[in-house]
């Protein structure tokens, strides 16, 4: 845009020198009005684009440019219509002066808006020094010659107004220049106003000598001045006019007033006897002196303030040191204490336990580590909220601290677990009384806010040196004993013994071996036949997993299945069982041309897995097994885990075409509602009911009720665990549909099942 402006002015000059007469007037008017109009557009765009308070500045500048356009239009109308210059002074001069006043108003607005941000006095002295220089030279070359004119007062007043207003604008711009960072916007304005000062001064001289002619070389300079001010708004953005003092002043700003004063010192050599000139010089010298004096005062104040700040800093450092010492003490306390109960935390407990073991070893005495856990604490948090749970933890911590002896050490391990170092331990009866006292907490209600709660504790005890000689071993064994107390029914204590270690070791060994069993496929499937009760015909089989370990031999499912459930390995095992069972039943059905149904137990974790249905679909496609030949057995616990989720997943399975059975019906969360809502095909009566039908009438009634209920709901019924002929006859009399049990067939390997049942079926056919 800057290049366009300068090319525009060059074109203006070329047109003036080439054209003449009326053509010169038209071309001059075109360039003059066009340049002003372009400046209006640039300033107006800035007033629209800016969203902050700075918009007011650009609106004033736009208004000033519009006034200048009106003045120029009046001037050109006289030239076009009357072919003469307008009278001086006239309406054109009114709008020219309004232009200057609008610009001054814009600058004053910025100064007033930012007056609290800048150091006004120093900038004011600098601007006044520069103004003295301008006034001295203006007096010599402009004002003094006016005194010899014999024109009217109005003529002279209007003539003088132009350079004076320009000087006011220049003074304000210089003030902003010295008071703020050097901004491109201020530089363009200073150059533009400086051009106005020069042009209006030449115009003033020519008007005094009556030599001014319109469309002369001065006209493009006025337009150039307006365009330079317009360029300041071309790239204006929000925040450009904010006063942000630099930490280090520029060299130009520091030396510029002194350079101006040196220029002013040349004036006496031009007019040595002029009192006004001498007064300007003296006034400028006084300003320099005042400026230096105030700078020294400011430096002295800064030194005093620096001293005060140093004193304050020393006080703050001392205060901060005390605070840091207190904080370090607090951190040391927090590092070793539980934030909720104020008891020792696990870290401090381990440290103190090691020290107590060393002391007990040196004194040849015993100590005990007691591990305490709140039973069913998760339910308390879930039902009453964590804030109630926290208050309960705090209360139990206080009770344990009160029951402990002064020599004992009570700590919170985390969550709902506490530990106690019972030291010294002189007699085992003393320890038994203490842990009995802890367990007895459940006998009295605990008041937590508005609730009276009864909680029970499971306690495990390990004794040094019999149950371990290191802190880690004692804590591990006390933890094992505590979990043994939970397994035994909670609300009791257990002392550690070697059997616990063996059980834990066995569990860990099996958990580790399960990984290898899955990788090396050490599992095999046994199959137990299922028969139609009325006809005695083989209708299907149930796949039952067996683990034959190369060293441990046959491992019962009751041993490894719970561990696999707990560790999540049951998912991989279940997927293998599903694939192997489907492949086997497909082979048998093709072998004899029959349609046996394969029943497969589904683990709760397996059923709740996100892609369970997709996996079943994939297995059916891989084995090419008809979906209705696969029966998935789920437990009642899975069925009622999440009713909506279960219904959705069962419906997806039914869409595949597989059969669904409820396993161990009657032993879990039996509910008539889910029998109606869930898309199931069979009920499998649990073995405990079958065991009692030959001796207990109640069990017969229950089995009969289940069968009647199932038939009314159009469900088939299968009884599992049938071991005697008497049980079989009773079930047949109750019109049970299917049967599975030792009385007709035990679980056997695939080879033996094929030989015993499949080949026999071929011979029968």
TrEMBL record:
Zinc-finger is among the record's keywords: no
Keyword Coiled coil: yes
Protein name, UniProt field: Diguanylate cyclase (GGDEF)-like protein
Coiled coil feature spans: 296-323
Domain of life of the source: Bacteria
Start and end residues of each EAL domain: 507-761
Signal peptide start and end residues: none
Alphabetized Pfam families for the sequence: EAL, GGDEF
Domain GGDEF positions: 365-498
Keyword annotations of the record: Coiled coil, Membrane, Transmembrane, Transmembrane helix
Membrane-spanning ranges: 5-20, 26-44, 56-78, 90-112, 124-142, 154-178, 185-205, 248-270, 276-294
